[in-house]
Amino acid sequence: MANLWKPLRRALLPMAAFGLFACQSEQSPIGPEAAAPSFVEVNGVQLVTIRPGRSLDLADGAAESRVTKKDGATLTSGDATLTVVPGSVKNTTTIWMQPDNASGFVQFIFGPSGTTFNPAATLQISAVKANLDPSQKHRLRIAGASDNADDWVIVGGVYDPATDTVTASISHFSRYALCVE
Fold first, then answer.
1. Which long-range contacts (CB under 8 A, 24 or more apart) does 73-80 make?
2. Weakly modelled stretches of the chain, pLDDT under 50
3. In this structure, what are the phi and psi dihedrals at residue 137, rounded to the nearest 5 degrees?
């Protein structure tokens, strides 16, 4: 009798192992939640979400700098850098930027509202905390919206894989966020 079971065990053991591995890859109704979306469409623009468990950094919650027509200024945080070139502002003023973790997007708010730049300032946003598959990062751009409206438009920009950042020129302050095009 033992000889009849031996071939049957040899056939059943690999099928049982295959079934065990196949079940592990299926989603259970009581299993982990679905992955967070990579972007959310707002006003036709696909804004990139922050990777779950991460937040945008900025020392002391906000960065500010005095900018003069003669000297320009640079604001830097762990996740964004704004460079205002000399001659691009009319009057000396204090400018600031602040991450907006509450939005869920890779987004920064700049002020004071109404500040303009001519020539344009350069905004660089890190993509390290973007909840986006690395193979899609070449699609990253920067979008802008008014301070109090979801009128998002793609400003543009270029993704640099060497620094994992997106850089774009901006001519005024508002909200700016990473998006995919």
1. 78/126, 79/106, 79/108, 79/125, 79/126, 79/128, 79/129, 80/56, 80/108, 80/123, 80/124, 80/125, 80/126
2. 1, 5, 8-9, 12-14, 16-33
3. -65, -25
Q: Which of 86, 58, 90, 56 is nearest to 74 (CA)?
A: 86
- The domain segmentation of the chain, as residue ranges, is 39-180
Fold of 39-180: Chondroitinase Ac; Chain A, domain 3 (2.60.220)
Q: Specify the residue for token string 């919650």.
A: 61
Count Cβ atoms below 10 Å from residue 104 Cβ, excluding itself: 16
Model pTM above 0.90: no
User: Residue 34 to residues 24, 40, 129: CA-CA distances in angstroms?
Assistant: 15, 15, 19
